[in-house]
Design brief:
Chain lengths: 592, 95
């Protein structure tokens, strides 16, 4: 069977399942719309949260990033999982006991102020909006490759599907589709790696590849795989795979910012409002991290396998004899070869082939020759092979010569990763508008039905805006805004929620001043270095990705100092804090 | 809890519970910090002298070991908190 036929079958079946689930579980009340009625089992919520959390970027780009950076990519592995320890021990059990539907709800009530609520709503909308654009773009790209359509058509199909089940079905609709999407993702991610692992290390369990031996081509002697990679890497002029690049403070700050950012992301927090009680929250948390760990423990092995395979298949080979996948992805513009020394052989070395992403001029292409590149060639390096890191996951099954249906499965996994995250974000966006803005601030007397109508309208609006930016991404803007989303979550929600739970003394003046100073500092630093200047002379060497951690410290300090100088919160607020510290009696998450 | 228990008793139980809760969380977070920031970043070079299978220990902790520890920490959190709930009479129904 043709590859496209397999693609149609896998994508078609998975979409059929998602839509079927959406119709079966559509929301009938705001309670179901916001928190799925509060009766989801911890196990199911664990899968749903894992799917919600792992975005297209994790699925497609993370392994490629690890393959390229080796030890340097550990910040993503630790940062995006370690955040769940903070989330579980410091936040979600108490927020679940509090029992309201959204994160701004807690901020508004705990700090008895609509101004605080408003700041929280703006942060939530900003964080989710920046995230969802990237997901839309991801869906568009995958569809355009799969079915040979334009990216905008792909974005519209993806946006339409997400709106159908998230906009209409609410939390109840997305919970069960996310469970299905997790299953698709986990198979799509691990099955190809299992095959590759058997070829490279002779072990069926790919996660053990990291500590395994290299046994490909029936070598008599065995050598630890990592040792082999270190050796190949230094031979080609790269630094050792297992060594860092030196700046420990920056690595520390980025890891910390990713961790606290993770713990402050509203679309992850609200997923824990869907289970029955605090005990269920704890159980759900370890299921969530276990499901995430299956993929996160596979990723470093995949990165390593891919790097070995890539170098062995490409380096010092004649272009004319390059494998089929190399030319396929070259035609997609994800791979390029510039024959710097005119010997017809591909040399893969450290350094850049040319500046920026490749631009091709196919009019000058000779038959069976490489696609000519118009970029300025970087003569300081002897590297001749450019590849986009994203192909590590997408092309890996082809590199290892796996059957066509597995390639289709990987594509379905990419789509599932993007859709599940987009749906979770869309829900937070719509509830921020309908619940936090309309119901709590603008028009407190609207009925349940009207509130749901606002929620559906808001999610339609959010999908359209996200689709617009998915189709016309402001150049490299999306990649840069990821630093924003994590920085904002780390410097706003995380410290504010922690203080709201663990201190009775922090008052509204302190919380608002803390949030404004934390966000102001973080935003200012990121905007300055990402948009206003090209210099990389960071303060103490801390890059914009890690500055959210410093922003968090500022938020904490300002809030404590200002609270000391102003009167303590009213008695009923202090009683409320005592109340949420006791798990018993959380009951159903209420919707008003 | 018997009907006789006064408001102060309830306050005291709640206070004890909260203190025990904080102690547990602090212990878990110390382990969390040591396995990730400690082993994976700050003392990575020192640990690299040792190895697990074919991998340097510090590198392995940063890429896989810490994640495994995180999962174990969350299981421990659920287990000990449930025990704490039971001890203080805050137990909830099984889910």
């Amino acid at each position: 069977m043709e590859q496209t036929t397999w693609n149609f079958i896998f994508i078609g079946i998975s979409f059929g399942v998602y839509i079927g689930i959406a119709i079966w579980s559509r929301a009938a009340s705001t309670k179901e719309y916001y928190t799925a009625g509060g009766g989801v089992s911890p196990f199911a919520n664990g899968m749903a949260t894992a799917a919600d959390w792992m975005s297209a970027a994790t699925f497609i780009s993370m392994a490629g990033g690890i393959a390229a950076a080796g030890y340097g990519a550990s910040k993503f592995l630790m940062g995006w999982t370690g955040g769940f320890v903070l989330l579980t021990t410091l936040m979600v059990p108490y927020l679940r006991k509090f029992g309201k539907a959204t994160v701004p709800d807690f901020v508004g009530d705990r700090f008895y102020s609509n101004a605080a609520r408003m700041v929280a709503v703006i942060c939530a909308i900003f964080i989710c909006m920046t995230y969802i654009m990237g997901q839309m773009r991801g869906v568009g790209i995958v569809f355009s490759r799969l079915f040979d359509i334009e990216i905008w058509q792909g974005v519209f199909i993806g946006g339409g599907i997400v709106y159908f089940y998230a906009g209409l079905g609410g939390m109840k609709g997305i919970t069960y589709t996310q469970v299905a999407q997790y299953c698709v993702m986990v198979f799509a991610y691990t099955i190809p790696v299992i095959f590759i692992s058997m070829i490279i290390t002779g072990n069926v369990i790919p996660q053990l590849g990291l500590i395994g031996d290299y046994v490909k081509e029936g070598q008599e002697y065995s050598q630890p795989l990592l040792e082999k990679i270190n050796q190949i890497s230094t031979d080609l002029g790269f630094k050792e795979y297992t060594k860092g690049s030196g700046n420990t403070l920056d690595l520390f700050c980025i890891t910390a910012a990713l961790m606290v950012g993770t713990a402050g992301l509203p679309h992850v927090i609200v997923r824990f409002f869907t289970v029955k009680n605090v005990k269920a929250v704890r159980k759900s948390a370890y299921w969530t991290l276990s499901f995430i760990a299956i993929i996160y423990l596979t990723a470093p092995a995949l990165g390593m396998f891919a790097r070995t395979n890539f170098i062995e298949e490409i380096n010092e080979k004649k272009y004319q004899k390059a494998p089929g996948w190399f030319k396929n992805w070259e035609n997609q513009g994800m791979i390029a070869w510039v024959d710097k020394n005119k010997d017809g052989i591909m040399q893969y070395r450290a350094g850049n082939v040319f500046a920026d992403k490749p631009e091709f001029d196919d009019s000058k292409r000779i038959e069976n020759g490489p696609r000519p590149v118009t970029n300025k060639i970087d003569e300081s390096s002897t590297n001749e092979v450019y590849y986009d890191r994203d192909i590590i996951v997408l092309a890996n099954p082809e590199m290892a010569g796996l059957p066509k249906w597995i390639i289709a499965l990987v594509m379905a996994g990419c789509v599932a990763a993007a859709l599940s995250t987009a749906a979770g974000l869309l829900l937070v966006l719509s509830t921020s508008v309908s619940h936090d803005l309309m119901k709590k601030i603008v028009k407190p007397d609207i009925s349940d039905k009207q509130e749901m109508r606002y929620a559906r309208l808001a999610s339609l609006g959010a999908v359209l805006v996200a689709a617009y930016f998915g189709i016309n991404p402001p150049s490299s803007f999306v990649a840069k805004t990821v630093a924003f989303a994590f920085g904002l979550a780390a410097s706003s929600f995380f410290p504010t929620l922690i203080m709201g739970i663990f201190s009775k003394r922090v008052n509204k003046e302190g919380a608002i001043a803390g949030m404004i100073c934390g966000i102001g500092f973080t935003l200012g630093y990121i905007v300055y270095f990402q948009f206003l200047t090209d210099t990389k002379e960071y303060w103490l060497g801390i890059s914009p990705e890690g500055i959210g951690f410093v922003g968090m410290l500022i938020n904490f300090s300002v809030a404590f100092v200002v609270s000391r100088l102003t009167p303590p919160p009213p008695q009923e607020v202090q009683d409320m804090v005592e109340h949420i510290r006791i798990p018993k009696g959380a009951g159903q998450a209420s919707d008003h | 809890m018997s009907k006789k228990s006064s408001f102060e008793d309830k306050q005291m139980i709640a206070g004890n519970y909260w203190q025990a809760n904080l102690r547990l969380v602090v212990c878990l977070l110390i382990i969390w910090f040591v396995v990730s920031f400690g082993c994976g970043i700050l003392f990575k070079e020192n640990l690299d002298q040792f190895s697990v299978g074919g991998a340097p220990l510090g590198f392995w902790m940063a890429q896989q070991g810490s994640i495994i520890c995180f999962v174990l920490l969350l299981i421990a959190y659920a287990f000990f908190m449930n025990k704490l709930d039971k001890k203080h009479g805050y137990e909830e129904e099984e889910v």
